[in-house]
Specification:
single chain, about 300 residues, 3 domains, four-stranded antiparallel β-sheet, 10 helices
Length: about 300
Amino acid sequence: MEHFAKDIEGHKTPLPKDAINRPGAYQTALQEIIRDLSKVNTPAADRALFAIAKKGHRYHKLTAATLMSTSHGFFDEEIWFGHTYCLKILRDYLDDTTKTGGTYRITNGYVEYRFKNGSSSSSIPKFLSDPNQRLKQVPAKICDQAAIKLSKLVFGLPRYHPLQKQAKQNLTGLKKAFDRMTNGFRPATDLETEFLQQHIHTTLFLPRMPPLKRPATKEDVKKGLAIFSLEGKRSVAKLHLPAVAKFSGQRVLIVQAEKSGRNTMYGVIGMGIKKKVTRSELSQIKSMKRSFSLFNLFNH
């Protein structure tokens, strides 16, 4: 696999051509390559996948087009989203304001995306539930499709949809939030995925923020290693990280905890949330361990 990954990185492996007796052979072969490289989890495989994410690689155009047309969350299509390489491709598309020819609209209690050859629909997400804060219909752009996927894939990014009245400003905010996560991303563990109430087979990424075991500095925040930095005398709180809690009615991960005087501050990541909060804003704080029971944590 090491040599194979190097060949992929170096553009040395052509894909089979489609034929009458092999329709879709080109895309099927690429899907298998993406799947195998994503599972290996080696530096060589990572380099190969990030090479594919760059414009100019022989696989890039088909990979990018497939990511944009594939629905995140469907088991058979989840292969394309199985590695952080996909985030690089989607981020590049956030700057593409080309119209797709489709439209997003609210109809009969659903969000509908209507395009040339058909339509798809889904339930109205909570952040679009207020009719006063949304539009009835908008033309779809490539950047919209990429932003919707990114906001679902990465916990900590603000939720986005072009039907939001402040969609333009929200897209700018999404870009800035993503670009501030400069330490990269990691897949959520099965326990984290379960805790965050996501389907176990749905890919979910978190900002890469390993516990620092010391108070964070402004430079750590700048590098994406911490959510906040406190002033003055401070220390690391006695809480094994990552931990879990409830914040504003939703489940969040605690990735940073520090004390300043008598006050304890927490850095939390949740659906559309990545921020510093106080102890009084959280409830049911517990360290996340393999042995802990989600049922016991939230049902007593």
